[in-house]
Write a structure and sequence with these properties.
homodimer, 388 residues, alpha/beta, Rossmann fold, Dehydroquinate synthase-like, alpha domain, 2 domains, 6-stranded parallel β-sheet
Chain lengths: 388, 388
């Protein structure tokens, strides 16, 4: 049954191969001082940096740069970003990059106008922002996290081996996001497929809960089918606009709160993957793929009817003459075949995790309920060991 | 291929059997003067009126009523509503009812602060509002039009036999909408199924265009499958909360612009149905159902691959040993069976249309392109004649 809920998502999206020009429509809405946030500099190679700078200049903005946002943005970097934004009296934080840059910009946005330590406040104590929030805009160069249309932010603390996400409310969501599928063309294949698996897993995390049959489940299946189909095109033909645009659009809707409405969710693949990420600093999507199959095979008996449905509706598994469990397991086998085909990590060992890290990763795994099985610590250890 | 587009929909939704209480959260955001808009008084029978009035009073609002909004709100009623809202210096227009009340409230909202005639300005000349727009909130008692989360407004002019819709931009969308599936329980069955068909047709109108395979098409299929399944539950068990809640939520997403992103659309079933509505004043959803099958059978050859996909994905038609056309036609035959089962009108005659009206309805039919076949007038006449 659809549980009670509220929904609001006011991010303005500009989508398409001409979408950057709409930055000209958005900039006049904000003050003069812009912090331009980006990562390792790939945007300087593909021309996006120059194009953005030229629009910022044409709009008379006073720009400072906050570069070097890492794939897993750290608490230290966040503190540095807050200082930069404060010193610049930022009127707008403009993130140009993938989900890491967007996540980071949102974390800065809620921290500029408070004197508390942002890591402690938002990622340890899970406080909600009470201070003024600096507006965030995003120019996306990678499809995956959905950060361009949600309030989520994941920050990593290397000192404590913690990678923790805070899902903020609607007021923290980006004011606008610019999605040009062509900006994702130059992404290395490994990053592309990590993003694709991240999208797929976001949908799974919200799909695998409940025994009812509500609109959200149908929408989740729709998004999964589109992602699977287009991923197989994109791995052979990364500049296929149709495939990359559909992946980009599905990514946004995979994690903008729509498909979780009325459902409970436990996000355990992310909890396991993020804990592993805190130890290995591996690419986010790859940590998720590495733990997914052992986790799903473990919870399959507790959510049998949904795993059966997943097999039939998403993977086209034939039902005749098979038990429910056989059908459900065949679905996961098909999913594994697809994961191998697109080339995501299937073990944590590939990502640098070792046996001696298992206990530490298990300690760092936040166990949530709302899914088919609330894990105990022994189960976490077993799933992580099977993921090695 | 996904065409370029923008997307923003900032309506805050409260969904569930406790959702009315959130009116208390919304009212303080607006000034004292509220115009309470409703229809024929059914809300006085089912308790919704009393509940709303009590919340308005508890929040110290100064309320005037604008009642009697008809199922097809008229230009005359719109002019009256503008006068009421002007005289009351309205700070908020609160529509309590179905799509008609929401549509009407939006039409009033863009007309209060202009001296031009609202029918002429928005439904003849299709001007966009340049004046200040009075905020609109909706409390929904019928699932169907999606008006609770879009900028659409359909107004009927009896003098000229015209029923015309204007899709306004994001600034005209309701600021908030309250969706309590239980408020739809007391709706007469005929109204319920008219609403359900309206939802289904909204999805079809956006689905039947293009030969590509984009996310929107998968999402459309998801919504259709959910609506079909739950409609069959609801016709036998109208107080089945699960069915009514899923229908209500699907209705919102069927027409809040999401599933048309990146696509062209011609909305020809609505153009034909609304033209018939201008002559018969019949229930909106029923005018759509009456013209749908003749129209879809007519355009099937021009959009064969999509009608084939519709048959297989939405209606589960088996493909083996059949031509594409046979599969596609079987899909429409299945759709017809479902329409008969839920009990929607299958002819315009049932709705009071007669042969001598055909030429007039054809004249009133706005022919749009963007679908599989841009109709000519002869085709419109033929489809309307086949719909009699």
């Amino acid at each position: 049954m659809l549980g009670n809920f509220s929904y609001k998502n006011a991010t303005k999206l500009y989508f398409g191969d001409d979408s950057l020009k709409y930055l000209n429509d958005e900039l006049p809405k904000y003050g003069k001082n812009v912090v331009l946030i980006y990562g390792g500099g790939s945007i300087k190679k593909n021309g996006v940096y120059d194009a953005v700078i030229s629009i910022l200049k044409a709009n008379g903005k006073n720009v400072v740069e906050d570069a070097g946002v890492m794939p897993n943005p750290t608490a230290d970097k966040l503190r540095e970003g807050v200082k930069i934004a404060k010193a610049h009296n930022a009127d707008l934080l403009l993130a140009v990059g993938g989900g890491s840059c967007c996540d980071y910009a949102k974390a800065v946005s809620v921290s500029v106008n408070t004197d508390e330590d942002p890591w402690e406040k938002y990622f340890v104590k899970f406080d909600e922002p009470t201070c003024e929030i600096v507006p965030v805009g995003c120019i996306l160069t990678m499809a995956g996290t959905g950060s361009e249309m949600n309030g989520g932010s994941v920050i990593t603390n290397h000192d404590t081996h913690q990678k923790i996400g805070h899902v903020f409310g609607e007021e923290v969501m980006p004011k606008f996001s610019i999605l040009n599928p062509k900006f994702t063309f130059s992404l290395p294949k490994r990053q592309m497929v990590a993003g694709i698996y991240d999208v797929f897993n976001h949908i799974c995390e919200q799909y695998f809960s409940g025994t009812d049959d509500n609109v959200s489940d149908y929408l989740a299946e729709a998004l999964m089918k589109s992602v699977i189909k287009n991923s197989l095109v994109a791995i052979d033909d990364p500049e296929n606009y149709e495939a990359r645009s559909n992946i980009m659009w599905a990514a946004t809707w995979a994690l903008n709160t729509l498909i979780s409405r009325g459902k409970t969710t436990d996000w355990m693949v992310h909890m396991l993957g993020q804990a592993a990420g805190g130890y290995t600093d591996a690419t986010h999507g790859m940590t998720l793929s590495a733990v997914s199959l052992p986790y799903y095979r473990h919870i399959l008996p507790y959510g049998l009817s949904k795993f059966r449905r997943f097999a039939v509706e998403v993977w086209g598994v034939a039902e005749n003459g098979k038990t429910d469990t056989e059908i459900a397991e065949e679905g996961l086998a098909e999913m594994e075949k697809w994961m191998r085909k697109i080339g995501v990590a299937l073990t944590l060992s590939e990502l640098g995790a070792t046996k001696d890290m298992i206990e530490g990763i298990a300690d760092a795994t936040i166990i949530l309920d709302g899914g088919y099985k609330t894990l105990n610590r022994d189960e976490v250890v077993r799933i992580l060991s099977e993921s090695l």
